[in-house]
Sequence to fold (475 residues):
Amino acid sequence: MNFHSFNLHEDVVTGIESMGYNSPTPIQQQAIPLILENKDLIACAQTGTGKTAAYLLPLIDRISHADASHTSTLILVPTRELAKQIDEQVEGLGYFAPVSSIAIYGGNKGGEWDQQKRALTSGADIIIATPGRLMSHMALGYVKLDQLNYLVLDEADKMLDMGFMDDILKIVRQLPTNRQTLLFSATMPKKIRDLAQQILNKPEEINLAVSKPAEKIDQRMYLTFDNQKLPLLEYVLRELEVQNMIIFTSRKSNVAQIVRSLRKMGFEAEGIQSDMTQDEREAALRDFKNKRYQVLVGTDILSRGIDIDNLSHVLNFDMPQDAEDYVHRVGRTARAASTGMAITFVNEKDMYRVRKVEQLIEREIPKLPLPEDFGPGPTYDPTKKPERPHGGNRPGQGNKNRSNDRNRGGNRNRNKNERGPRPEQKATTGETGATPVTQPTGNDRPIKPFKPRNRNKGKRGPAGNAATPPTTPTE
Fold:
């Protein structure tokens, strides 16, 4: 099958060929005919399978020959990086077709706000927007989407994970009900199906290889202690033929530290994280794509919406929080039928996450031994859960259990007293039998044989009188 099989207009096919696309991917083969038939659609496919082109191609084909004077298409996405990537793909695929687009996202300069406002008021054919930024424009009253024909939700699962559900529903309420709605997602949890029921009309469904990395990704793991990670990273970069690598870390505070360490090792590296300005992030990503840097370090912000051709290696400096995030991270390599390698460092606290990943992708990932001069790493035990604070108690129970420990200690002392002193103590205490002697005070409290307790803390007498039994205070 080739793209001519879809009966697309010649100017669209010319744009496809100019982008170097030869034959449609499985998601494109199934989605394009349904979209051209004006069907609502739920499409679930792993990252890197070409699902963006799967909806852009039929929409560009229709928009460019409809001669409409209004915004006909809204594409909602979770991140500014994905918004820019889709905008670039519209420009490439629609280069020979009369179609306009603009990306609407936050974190940019004031002048770009005005440019976004003009596009929203004058009516660009395709608007690609993050929900929060679009809501900011809509709150000012000049956004006109009352004639919208097509709504696309891309990376819908990520948008819901980021808390955009309410914003999405508010936006949808202001759109015409007579529209075509397309929902694309890498995973299909219940919350996605609940959203689909609210905004789609009798949708067709495509489900391809949900959350499984491409077969051509060589996946490996090293079991390592945290203090072994940086030396192991240097070993990997020097021993393997690394053309370019993205390193993922779950903490943005680690990004700068890893970059500094790599530069000390002699590697060209740059970091990218959410605290950087949009211009700084774009510059770092552009320089990496142009091979100015060998290594790019970032958080999960890089795992979606970043399209880098021929990425040879992905390295997880630590295990991601969710198994689905692992799939998105390693999916940055081996794209467009190329091959790649994904390496993951696993410390003793994250081993239980390995089993979740392997269950999701339905395959076991090889655990490689550390180099000989590194010493032993942690023993693999996927059943071991990380220790919780306060000795493994659930949150909120630590103080209670520590109190119980003290009480248990006190009970042991009291039990000793109740059993009576040892024979060698009787002469000292004056006890006969098991009944403890009480001091002649109103408290009538048994004396502990070795460590008298002062029950009246903070109200001691002079130094040296700590063992004096408390007296009843007078008014």
